[in-house]
Amino acid sequence: MYKGFYCDNLPGLPKTNATLTVASIDFNGYGLCAPSLTGFVDAFPDLALFHANSNNFTGNVPDLSALPYFYELDLSNNNFSGGFPDTVVPLGGLAFLDLRFNRFAGTVPPPVFGLSVEALFLNNNGFSGSIPESLGSTRAQYLVVANNQFTGPIPRSIYNTSGSLSEVLFLNNKLSGCLPYEIGLVEGLAVFDAGGNEITGPIPLSFGCLGSVEELNLAGNQLYGHVPDVLCLLAKTGKLQNLSLSDNYFHSVGHHCMELVRSRVLDVRRNCILGFPDQRPALECAWFYADPPEHCPFVPHIPCDLPGFKPPATAAAALPATAHGHAQGGGN
């Protein structure tokens, strides 16, 4: 009796024992090890799913492009290393890819974000370099690139994920540059986490348009300026439940933000807000504001209708030109 193998009938054929084939393999948590999976996984011509998290597999990721039904690959929490597995890129029908908790390193090829996946987990590896602009082409609902060594800005192309991206985690990398205005254009975004990076600038007013956001973490960066009230209003007009802005350099908050501080929805510890407890030393704040890491442009327009706020008729025309391919609004 083999464990971890699951059979099913091939699509379009009568459901009889004669048409049964190995459709999925689930080795999750078996503690298995092998120098390579090549010659094993790719030897099942009708395989659709291969789940093998929490084992000790190493070597190269096999080429599965010849498997016509294949759509789920989970190799998380193993000992794979080297560059991003190029055998994954041709898997056009892939719906789920999980490579987290391995020792992959180097850059992530731009075509990876063009895969048709609903979930893409690349976190807890050693990936480095810039996150490619092709991030905007992902159709994933869940995108996690946390706990790597990525550098450079969050791609402004993220606005192209509007309507599909629900949760994105950038935390604990080395991302820098200005906080992109275009993040506020991502409709349906429920979780945005970019904590533990080196991102700077003010929070764009466009963040007030994130009516679906529940968790927003920007802690541990180099953000500065005023915490916009339109963002804090989302706790009343939207779904915001947790807003973490600690360990930055904000100098003030508005009335609605004050209410969130009192209700502990908003965390602004370790900032530069006069009269607030647990703030940075005044001299540290003075040094920062005397020479901030980057001067980021402030866009004074809100690209949506907000309760109690009516943007001017020209607001749409004043949208950061980035969304149309020009440079303005924060990112580099």
Which characteristics define this entry?
332 residues, Leucine-rich repeat, LRR (right-handed beta-alpha superhelix), twelve-stranded mixed β-sheet, five-stranded parallel β-sheet, 23% strand
Question: How would you summarize the topology of this molecule?
Answer:
Elements: E1 5-9, E2 20-26, E3 33-34, E4 49-51, E5 56-57, E6 72-74, E7 81-82, E8 96-98, E9 103-106, E10 119-121, E11 126-130, E12 142-144, E13 149-152, E14 167-169, E15 174-175, E16 191-193, E17 200-201, E18 215-217, E19 222-227, H1 229-232, H2 234-237, E20 242-244, E21 249-253, H3 255-262, E22 266-267, H4 282-290
Parallel strand pairs: 2-4, 3-5, 4-6, 6-8, 7-9, 8-10, 9-11, 10-12, 11-13, 12-14, 13-15, 14-16, 16-18, 17-19, 18-20, 19-21, 20-22
Antiparallel strand pairs: 1-2
How is this structure best summarized?
The chain has 332 residues and is mainly beta. It has helices spanning 229-232, 234-237, 255-262, 282-290, and strands spanning 5-9, 20-26, 33-34, 49-51, 56-57, 72-74, 81-82, 96-98, 103-106, 119-121, 126-130, 142-144, 149-152, 167-169, 174-175, 191-193, 200-201, 215-217, 222-227, 242-244, 249-253, 266-267. It has a domain at 153-324: Leucine-rich repeat, LRR (right-handed beta-alpha superhelix) (Alpha-Beta Horseshoe).
Structure in words:
The protein is mainly beta. The strands form 4 sheets. It has a 12-stranded mixed beta sheet. It has a domain at 153-324: Alpha-Beta Horseshoe (Leucine-rich repeat, LRR (right-handed beta-alpha superhelix)), CATH 3.80.10. The longest helix has 9 residues, at 282-290. 8% of the residues lie in helices and 23% in strands. It is elongated.
